[in-house]
Amino acid sequence: MSEAATITRRISLAQDVDLGHLLGRNDDHLRTLESQLDIQIVARGHDVVLKGAESQVRRGEKALVQLAELVRAGAPIRNVEVRAALRMLADDESADLKSVFADAILVPSRRKWIAPKTQKGVDPMTEAPAPASPAQLRELGITLVDTPGRPGAPPSEASGTR
Question: Which fold has domain 6-102?
């Protein structure tokens, strides 16, 4: 970091931001930001001070503020997301990380889970999965049988009379 063009910027994060998730275990996320951007970052409570080249400090500030919004929304933040955020901001300074990460689907592998895109579990574009129509069931040779006393059973079966 050159001394000629260094600036210092102080960010005050909202009090409801979970610093453990934002900063990472032992401040790992801050260390990632420092090493990737070649800046110094000091966190004291919800106040974060960034020092370095103006363009890098500006990118670090945007990354921290947007990552804090993700944490507030309940999104898990790992070093992978921190590095991805920095790459996106390097390509486009006006990138909206929250909208990008909200559309992401986690790929299943070791210690990772698939995250649902909606709370209903339904694709908003195709409304899939949808109930099968009677014609589709006939085509597949499927006959639905309601169990007596079970919700959805015809009234004669539900009462036990035939």
Answer: Ribosomal Protein S8; Chain: A, domain 1 (3.30.1370)
